[in-house]
Predict the structure.
Amino acid sequence: MYKVYVVDDEPLMINSVIDTVSWPENGFEVVGSATDPEIAVSEICDMRPELVFCDLKMPGMDGIALIKLLREKGLDCEFIMLSAFGEFEASRSFFLMDGFDYLLKPLELQESELVLERVSRRIAEKNRLSPSTAFVQTYTDAFDELIAYITAHFNKKHTLASLSKQFNISPSYICALFSKHYESTLTIFLTNLRMTAAAERIASSEGALKEIAIDCGYSDYFYFCRVFKSYYGVPPTEYRQKHLSERP
């Protein structure tokens, strides 16, 4: 799993970040947190997390200064900034040069998971995990079975915990195997399957979009539309109209 560190001067906000997101299901684990930016810098340098959630406004050292300091120390992790509505624009251009993205407080689960899916792709591109002796043929065979199972049941809910139990592979091995074989994560792999199936059905039929969303594993239609637009650049309705107009 990818390691996450959370920095915010408000303990309640740290708890909110940790409690809002289903970290293991998205391929992450929170390894530390701090309300003091200076302590955070020291611990982040020691723990070397792949991702840091950081508050924009903090006494003593704001989020931008913390990112700059960690960059100067050679940290190559990704940063997601946390900001209250309306306070971010003054620093946004500078942040986007050095950070990955930002989220508004209070965090929303769906918005957070969309950002995590995108940052997972970035981390997977940077971190090419090479196979170790632990990846014996037994694990490879079990992983092949796991992939076949997910592909056949992409519309079902899958978690690292449930797959680990079913296929007798530890969650960390599952994450490493996805990175090794697909340069991806479980969440991204599953989203790719669902979005491919959804796009094919939307383009080739006139079935209700809500039913297609459910058939592809999304009980929340509005969340499905946001994921689809993030994936294809247009909402499902526009995607269908475009393909209908191209039919002979």
Remarks:
- Strands lie at 2-7, 28-34, 51-55, 78-83, 101-104.
- The two ends are 47 Å apart (CA to CA).
- Residues 191 and 227 are 9 Å apart (CA to CA).
- The longest strand covers residues 28-34.
